[in-house]
Every structure is written in structure tokens, then in C-alpha cells.
């Protein structure tokens, strides 16, 4: 895709009030699917403007999808208060339903980073999506004990020098899933993928292209 994405800022209705949102769409106007991206922990500076969340959204746009980012409840201008992952799951589901209504004919993908990855895993296990991308998922705090796992194509990406989400814990958790997702470990990458966002983009792009045919 050539040209910068079209960007539209708006508010969507969440279960605890209005949620700030940004929708990026391909510059050529041809939309072949939709994606929702969940940001990292709101009590540790995470917002929809986080670089990893932004990279995920723009990667989906490069594949021809409309990409929605939103601020969880209580984050920046979004209404409501932080709810330790419980209410945030409701926010994610509301964003998914909004995108499903806007783009009913194409595939719907879900992605998230850290806290947002854990929330999106739980969301994908409770509603139908066509693909899932989880970057450095904080599963032990926010997604452990799933009654069932997502059944869609699923990619997990993590750096082997992640200082916040231990790669060994992620591998241990994934080994307990059947069949489990595809796992890509980026050597030398830490939690926020400083200097390695291009590697992250490539991994996600290749996975999307394989599963969006």
C-alpha cells in the first residue's frame, strides 16, 4: 500500500462510558478487513499512542485492513476507571463489535501488546475473530486460567531480553495449550522493542499475509 493512512479520531460507546478511539484506513480506500489493537497497561503509561500499538495498527493497514486503536476506560480522555482487566475486557469487546458493524464483510483481527495482549487473548477466546496477534503478552497476571483458548490463527511475538514479561514464563504457558499459537522470539529485543520495531512489523506482516488469503 502506498501513501499515509487516513486517520479519523472519534469516540465509541464502551460499557463504562465514552472511549477515545483512532481509526486508520488505507490511503487507497480499499479495505479488505478490520483489526482492533489493544494498548499496554494504562497504570504504567500505556495508551493507544504507544509505539508498539501504533506499529501493529500501521502493519494491519499495510495489509489493507482498517485498524482501530482505543484508550481503555480511565485512560487519557476515556471515561470510567481502571478495573484490573475485568472491565477492560468489556471495552475490547465493545470495540470489536463496533468494527464488526462497520466492516461486516471482511475478516476481523485482534491484536494487543503486553496488558493489551492478555486482554485481547481473553476477548478472542470469548468471541469469534479471524486472527490474533499477541506481543509480549502479560498472561500470568491477566490471562492465566483461560477456560478455552482462541481457535483462530494466532501469533505470539516476544523478545528474548524482555525485562517485564519473562520469555520462559510465556513459553511455559504456551506449552500448556493445545494446539497453541505460533511463537516468534526476536533475539536481542526487550519489552518495548526499542530499535526492533521493523522486525516486529515484518513478523506480523508475514503472518497476516499467510492467513488473510
Please list the strands of the largest sheet in the order they lie side by side. Answer: 1-2-4-3-5-6-7-8
The SSE order reads EEEHEHEHEHEHEH
Q: Rounded to an integer, what's the Rg over CA atoms?
A: 16 Å
**What's the main sheet like?**
8 strands, mixed
**First-residue to last-residue Cα separation:** 16 Å
Mean pLDDT reading: 93
How many individual β-strands? 8
Strand proportion, as a percent range, falls in 15-25%
Low-confidence segments, ≥5 residues, pLDDT <50?
Answer: none
Query: Strand pairing plus helix content: what structural class?
Result: alpha/beta
Number of helices: 6
Helical fraction equals: 25-40%
Shape: globular
Task: Describe the structure concisely for a colleague.
The protein has 213 residues and is α/β, with parallel strands linked by helices. Helix content is 32%, strand content 24%.
Task: Describe this structure as you would to a colleague.
- The chain is α/β, with parallel strands linked by helices and 213 residues long.
- The chain has six helices and eight strands.
- An eight-stranded mixed beta sheet has the order 1-2-4-3-5-6-7-8, with helices on both faces.
- Helix 1 runs parallel beside helix 6 (197-211) and helix 2 packs across helix 3 (115-126).
- The mean pLDDT is 93.
Record keyword descriptors for this entry.
24% strand; 8 strands; eight-stranded mixed sheet; globular; 6 helices; 213 residues; alpha/beta; 32% helix
